[in-house]
Design a protein that fits this description.
Number of strands: 16
Oligomer: single chain
Bound molecules: pyridoxal-5'-phosphate
Shape: globular
Radius of gyration: 22 Å
Strand content: 15-25%
Length: about 450
């Protein structure tokens, strides 16, 4: 018999907080982390507003919104109340054969705000799964249209769409782990990262390159998947809207579906509710996640139009062949409804404009530094691109010492603050970022 009494101090949280890091090192695996080489780790006790409260008493201004998600900050009374109210009813029920108000309301709201004419929402548990679902939709659509040979996706170099296998197959082929998993990853088609920046016209060369990719692969292409305007985790690159208009036209003329992965960009972050609105280009399939619940729980959605949905359901299977256990989790949906209500009832557009100006002003001094290649800001996203990759083990504690939470990757030091951050917190955050970069 196992002696479970030995675990009781851990389960009841009575062990001293100082041992949390060593307990973590003994038992836990972190994202993209080794279990043999310990990376810097900080223990967070609670979070409120824009602050992360560390166990040692330090309070950090959060510059990451927990990877784009916590747009309203932490411990928000309205989101807490929505969670508590829903907990009193049911935290989860299966979604096969059952429905509930939080899910229906959420899908109605998403359809009301989504770009273009969207009619059907498929809820799932994470961004990666929303991308898997989008890819499945595209493949079932083409097969049911009598085009089973159209089984490949086109994606952009520098893109990031998640860590599951189909999602990984459309991530950047160099930085996206393709060589590690090449035996099992579906081979896809890649266009170069758009060179023209946001606000510029696309270059004739890159549009012609797209044309020729479509010419070559038209009979095998099911869909094109892109992060519209802003490539996130693959490079924090802001690119030309004209590129997307051209892509839309090519998809239309070749019978190819266009998937917009707005998992990072949606819900105001880019300066509009969706990057699609800024580009004035409508996708056939739209993926959202991350900020959908204001960062409270994992929830994502894949959204499409009635004509696409009907073709998907018209084939041999007679349905979209996907169904996660925690699909449309009522607790997550109730919080998502509260989060969207909070966002849509706020003056989000001018608030994001305020954050954009603050990031521009605050990060501008970094542009003068010899180690900095570029400083760019779009919406509530600020990026400093360095010439050389940062040393994470060194730089992460330096941010913490300066009282901010920023987590760079590669050559990119970037921030996407919670929308509730005030001007003085934002300028303190930017000053800490610039100081830290200055010291690299
Ligand atoms: N797509 C984009 C654009 C993302 O930025 C991410 C996550 O960073 C994903 C997909 C994957 O989402 P998740 O981490 O929720 O699976």
């Amino acid at each position: 018999m196992r002696d479970y009494a030995a675990f009781r101090p851990i389960m009841t949280g009575t062990t001293p907080p100082a041992s949390l890091i060593s307990r973590d090192r003994a038992a836990v695996w972190h994202p993209y982390a080794s279990v043999t080489e310990a990376a810097p780790l900080f223990s967070v006790d609670s979070a409120d507003g824009v602050y992360l409260n560390l166990s040692d008493g330090r309070r950090l201004i959060d510059g990451m919104s927990s990877w784009w998600a916590a747009i309203h900050g932490y411990n928000h009374p309205l989101l807490n109340a929505a969670a508590q109210a829903q907990l009193g009813k049911m935290s989860h029920v299966m979604f096969g054969g059952l429905t509930h108000e939080p899910a229906v309301q959420l899908c109605e709201t998403l359809l009301a705000i989504a770009p273009g004419q969207m009619d059907k929402v498929f809820l799932s548990d994470s961004g990666s799964v929303a991308v898997e679902v989008a890819i499945k939709m595209a493949l079932q659509f083409q097969a049911n249209n009598g085009q089973p040979g159209r089984s490949k996706l086109m994606a952009l170099r520098g893109g990031y769409h998640g860590d599951t296998f189909a999602a990984m197959s459309v991530c950047d082929p160099v930085t996206g782990m393709h060589h590690l998993f090449k035996q099992v990853l579906a081979p896809q088609i890649f266009a170069d990262r758009p060179a023209a920046r946001f606000g510029e016209a696309a270059t004739a060369g890159e549009l012609a390159a797209l044309d020729s990719l479509f010419e070559t692969h038209q009979h095998e292409l099911a869909a094109v998947i892109v992060e519209p305007l802003i490539q996130g985790a693959g490079g924090m690159w802001f690119y030309s809207a004209a590129y997307l208009s051209h892509l839309r036209a090519l998809c239309d003329s070749h019978g190819v579906l266009l998937i917009f992965d707005e998992i990072a960009t949606a819900f105001g972050r880019c300066g509009d509710l969706f990057a699609a609105n800024i580009a004035a280009v409508t996708p056939d399939i739209l993926c959202v996640g991350k900020a959908l619940t204001g960062g409270y729980l994992s929830l994502a959605a894949t959204i499409t139009s009635k004509p696409v949905a009907e073709v998907i359901c018209g084939g041999e299977a007679g349905a979209l062949m996907h169904g996660p256990t925690f699909m449309a989790n009522p607790l997550a949906c109730a919080i998502a409804n509260a989060s969207l209500e909070l966002l849509l009832n706020s003056d989000w557009r001018s608030n994001i404009g305020r954050l954009e100006r603050g990031l521009r002003a605050g990060l501008a001094p970094a542009a003068q530094l010899p180690q900095v290649a570029d400083v760019r800001v779009m919406g509530a996203i600020g990026v400093i691109e360095l010439h050389e990759p940062v040393n994470m083990a060194e730089i992460q504690p330096q941010f913490v010492e300066r009282g901010v939470w920023v987590r760079p990757f590669g050559k990119l030091v970037y921030s996407m603050p919670p929308y509730i951050m005030n001007d003085s917190e934002l300028s303190a955050l930017c000053a800490a970022i610039v100081d830290t970069v200055t010291g690299t």
